[in-house]
Automatic annotation (TrEMBL):
Subunit structure: Homodimer.
Alphabetically ordered keywords of this record: Amino-acid biosynthesis, Aminotransferase, Histidine biosynthesis, Pyridoxal phosphate, Transferase
Listed InterPro entries: Aminotransferase_I/II_large, HisP_aminotrans, PyrdxlP-dep_Trfase, PyrdxlP-dep_Trfase_major, PyrdxlP-dep_Trfase_small
Gene: hisC
Domain Aminotransferase class I/classII large: 60-392
Modified residues (N6-(pyridoxal phosphate)lysine): K259
Keyword Protein biosynthesis belongs to the record: no
Protein name stated in the entry: Histidinol-phosphate aminotransferase
Species of origin: Rhodoferax lithotrophicus
Family that this chain belongs to: Belongs to the class-II pyridoxal-phosphate-dependent aminotransferase family. Histidinol-phosphate aminotransferase subfamily.
Catalytic activity: L-histidinol phosphate + 2-oxoglutarate = 3-(imidazol-4-yl)-2-oxopropyl phosphate + L-glutamate
């Protein structure tokens, strides 16, 4: 069951009417398929849910998925290819996985007494967290909740549903800040096992205020819950929660190499107190990170200055796009701490279709949540891609 916290006459309550809008990136199965006797052993809720859809970007300027637009130089491509060619593909991942864990610990400046676990992208880690916190019916304990602000990353709700947890989404304020009274009320009512705080948030691209963050973290801890700070977009943000991680023993930090510049290798990592990571790691499938992914990640960390330069370029391009958007009277652009910008236009579908017709693919998020009405999400690309995107946007308004 998925619940969405709403404000009604100043008093929050739970309902489910907004849930489907949080899954606008997915497509529903036909009723006939749900009734197909060949699928009768598939869980009814799985048959009724949606499958994630990736937009077809063939021949398009692809600015819909928050990917790093920069590729490796020919020299680094050749060096990586030679290195991957020497990997023992006939062996299961072994010691090199621990080498990667140590390299990531050094890269992040992991505090003493803390550890990390690896996932096949942060999506897998989100699923594993739900799995670790799901209470079986035989335990006699109430069903656990996952709580997160909405609009937000769809996988928080989806992983909760798949693992048998309830989800409660708490709407942001009109200016996309945490609604602290509503968050605290939802935590007190549902005592969530996991509270997610994306920092920056997707798709709104903003950082939450420190006071609200700390209030939510303390409240979640007081009811015995975990808090996961999702820093997927950390390379582009002005702040990180890492330097505050040791303040609260129930806080975990989730990161990914996707926005670092390696979306294709699918590697995420979860940071937290050693004792807590050790428990969550018990539900991780063995060999969940391939030898190729591992070696590519190690190679990238050895050349992190290259990726840091790419992040600086993306941040500079983001500033240029934002400034250009302010010159368009029909567009309202929101400040960003990520590699994307959220914009509100008079007609999101018309503008999206017009940009697609001009060869530029962005993301129409206007149906994800009522707060995102008439909004598009624009990924920051190269200077050339951004010019094409801005030209297409202006022409499509």
């Amino acid at each position: 069951m998925v619940k969405v916290y709403k404000r009604m006459r100043g008093r929050p309550r739970c309902g489910s009417s907004e849930f489907s809008e949080n899954f606008s990136e997915m497509t529903s199965l036909p009723t006939a398929q749900i009734q197909n006797p060949l699928t009768q052993r598939i869980r009814p809720d799985v048959q009724a849910m949606h499958a994630y859809v990736v937009q077809d970007s063939t021949g398009m300027v692809k600015l819909d998925a928050m990917e790093n637009p920069h590729r490796l130089s020919p020299d680094l491509q050749a060096a990586l290819g030679q290195r991957l060619g020497a990997v023992a593909l006939n062996r299961y991942p072994a010691g090199r996985i621990n080498d990667l864990r140590r390299a990531l610990a050094d890269h992040t400046g992991l505090p003493a007494g803390y550890d990390l676990m690896l996932g096949n992208g942060s999506d897998e880690l989100i699923s594993l967290l739900a799995l670790a916190c799901a209470m079986p019916a035989a335990s006699g304990l109430p069903k656990a909740y996952v709580l997160a602000p909405v609009p937000g990353f769809v996988m928080y709700a989806m992983s909760a549903q798949l693992q048998g947890l309830d989800f409660c989404g708490v709407p942001l304020t009109a200016d996309f800040e945490l609604d602290m009274p509503a968050m605290l009320a939802a935590i007190a009512q549902h005592q969530p096992a996991i509270t997610y705080l994306a920092y920056p948030n997707n798709p709104t691209a903003n950082l939450w205020g420190d006071e609200a963050m700390e209030a939510v973290i303390r409240a979640a801890g007081e009811v015995g819950g975990l808090v996961v700070i999702d820093e997927a977009y950390q390379p582009f943000a002005a702040k990180s929660y890492l330097d505050r991680l040791t303040r609260h023993p129930h806080v975990l930090l989730l990161r990914t190499l996707s926005k670092f510049g390696l979306a294709g290798i699918r590697l995420g990592y979860l940071l937290g107190p050693q004792a807590l990571i050790a428990q969550i790691d018990k539900v991780r499938p063995p060999y969940n990170v391939s030898v190729l992914n591992c070696e590519a990640a190690l190679f990238a960390l050895e050349h992190q200055k290259v990726f840091e330069a790419q992040a600086l370029d993306i941040r500079a391009q983001r500033a240029h796009i934002f400034e250009s958007l302010t010159q368009l009277p029909q567009v309202h652009a929101y400040p960003s701490e990520a590699n994307m910008l959220l914009v509100r236009v008079p007609d999101a579908q018309k503008t999206f279709d017009g940009m697609a017709a001009r060869g530029v693919l962005v993301k129409n998020v206007s149906k994800m949540h009522p707060l995102l009405t008439q909004c598009l999400r624009l990924t920051v690309g190269t200077a050339e891609e951004n010019h094409l995107m801005l030209t297409a946007l202006e022409a499509s308004l």
